[in-house]
Specification:
Number of strands: 15
Shape: globular
Order of helices and strands: EHEHEHEHEHEHHEHEEEEEEEHHE
Distance between the termini: 51 Å
Number of helices: 10
């Protein structure tokens, strides 16, 4: 079955992996009209079967191949840790399936380009699961910025940090699985800034590294030729405010804690006008918005989403590569590979060992 030809019928999902994000996504799919989860796969049959029993899924596979070969699966949701995204999403695409792949999209931009190439060569739908971009309130915020509600953007600030503690055995401390704050958490503030400003022309970064060689606490300063800048941070050793703000020549937008799934934000215009508050009456925590966008695209025959375009995903991955290059984080399977391309305004790594 061609996963890109669903017409107006129910879209049949296959879920790959059984962790926490897969549970949340599957739970939201169950309440989404026109969606059905028909299969789940894990590396063990016991895990797949337990997940299937919990959510009433008819088929469970103890390996990925079974899911990819399932003729009744239209689209595969890849919820593995990000070090496995290249293999999992690539195999799904090669099997002719449409794919929604969790973020960070891959370990690096090279792997991301490979996935985009496979999808485009085969005429298949592919999208990063950047649910923030599909959130109705974030879409409204971006629309206001594009329409000039705050004038020309001059600064963006955003942070995402968790206090942990995450011990040496935790996946967030494991270089082999792409551990560290940047790919798990930093992808959000970077994606937020690039949603509003595009790909930066300059990248600087500073990080505290763990003994294992992953970033525990990272600060980023991104710059654009327009003169705009973004001050961003991520951490797995500090509970940061999780807020964002965008300041322009004519005003400012403030997003409170949980900026990547906001319930509200405030627009403050220069000149003393009363602040305007925008509220999302819908459930802002739901992952169903990204699922609904995937289904809309499949029914329309679109190969990528205008809300989460592949070029935007590639641009974010290039920025994450540049940050890692500057702070000295390289994952084991990247050993011997060509370093990421230089970005204008690069700075030498500034690293404080743990």
């Amino acid at each position: 079955m061609d996963g890109n030809k669903v017409g107006n019928r129910t879209v049949r999902w296959g879920v790959l992996a059984t962790g926490g994000i897969a549970e949340r996504f599957t739970s939201d799919l169950r309440g989404l009209e026109g969606a059905e989860v028909v299969a789940v796969a894990s590396r063990t049959e016991a895990s797949a079967r337990a997940f299937a029993d919990r959510f009433g899924i008819p088929r469970a596979y103890g390996d990925w191949a079974g899911l990819f070969a399932d003729a009744e699966v239209d689209v595969v949701y890849v919820a593995t840790p990000h070090h496995a995204h290249r293999e999992a999403a690539g195999r799904a695409l090669e099997a002719g399936k449409a794919v929604l792949c969790e973020k960070a999209f891959t370990l690096n931009s090279g792997e991301a380009e490979e996935l985009v190439g496979i999808a485009r060569d085969r005429g298949l739908f592919l999208m990063e699961a950047m649910w923030m971009y599909c959130n109705p309130l974030i879409r409204r915020l971006a629309e206001l910025v594009r329409d000039g509600a705050i004038g020309e953007v001059r600064t963006v600030q955003a942070d995402f940090g968790l206090a942990g503690p995450f011990g040496p055995g935790h996946r967030l401390r494991d270089p082999a699985v792409g551990g560290g704050a940047l790919l798990d958490l930093g992808v959000y503030p970077v994606s937020f800034a690039q949603l509003l400003l595009g790909e930066p022309s300059a990248v600087q970064a500073h990080a505290l590294l763990s003994p294992e060689g992953v970033d525990l606490n990272t600060g980023m300063l991104l710059g654009w030729e327009s003169g705009a800048s973004a001050l961003l941070s991520c951490s797995i050793v500090a509970d940061t405010p999780l807020t964002a703000s965008v300041t322009g020549t004519e005003g400012r937008i403030d997003v409170p804690r949980g900026f990547f799934f906001p319930e509200r934000f405030t627009l403050v215009r220069n000149g003393g006008a009363e602040p305007e508050e925008f509220v999302n009456a819908d459930d802002p925590h739901a992952l169903r918005h990204e699922a609904a966008e995937v289904m809309r695209c499949l029914r329309a025959g679109e190969k990528e989403s205008p809300l989460v375009p592949l070029e935007g995903t590639l641009a974010v991955m290039r920025t994450l590569d540049a940050v890692r290059e500057r702070v000295g984080v390289r994952y084991p399977r990247e050993a011997g590979t060509v370093p990421p391309p230089a970005v204008a305004g690069r700075a030498e790594p500034v690293v404080t060992p743990a």
